[in-house]
Amino acid sequence: MTELDFGEYLEAFDYDERLAMKIGLTEMLDLYAEGRAQLIDIRFPEEHAAWQVGIGQHIPLNELPGRLDELDRDKTIVTMCPHYDRAEIARLYLTLKGYHSRYLTDGLLGIAQHLRGDTARDYMNRLEG
After folding, report:
1. In a domain, 122, yes or no
2. What pTM was computed for the model?
3. What is the rounded distance in angstroms from the CA atom of residue 99 to the CA atom of residue 74?
4. Cys-Cys with 104: which of 6, 57, 80, 126 at CB 3.0–4.6 Å?
5. How many structural domains compose the chain?
6. Structural domain range at position 84
């Protein structure tokens, strides 16, 4: 995918893109388990140090431009933060840089709420198997 400038992106923005830029928790977890998504936690270092979800890679939002070489262009890049505001900033940046990227609408708090108890065990077993 080629890079776009912001004006080009806005001129092409439509209802399909509005849907395509978002990803829900279930779809994201499936893509990740299938090896088709790379999860990027874009929180500040202090937030990441305070709590982690155990899946994905931590690249703070302000470090993203200098760490693009860590991203796999063959995968969907899913950006994540506690809710989704900063994840959407990261997603837009990556999209303009030519990556296929989406932001997690449920946020990391949604992952933490979903992956607990039996659900966490079963999902981690799925990743290992």
Report:
1. no
2. 0.93
3. 9
4. 80
5. 1
6. 6-64+71-112
Of 18, 14, 12, 38, nearest to 99 (Cα)? 38
> Could you give phi then psi for residue 38, rounded to 5 degrees?
-115, 125
Specify whether the CB–CB gap between 58 and 79 falls below 8 A.
no
38 in a structural domain: yes
Give the Cα separation of 35 and 72 in Å (integer).
11
Q: What is the DSSP letter of 54?
A: S
Q: Is residue 44 part of a domain?
A: yes
pLDDT per residue, tens digit, the chain (129 aa), is: 688 899 999 999 999 999 999 999 999 999 999 999 999 999 999 999 999 988 999 999 999 999 999 999 999 999 999 998 999 999 999 999 999 999 999 999 999 999 999 999 999 999 998
Q: How far apart are CA 18 and CA 69, in angstroms?
A: 27
CB-based contacts of 10, cutoff 8 Å, min separation 6 = none
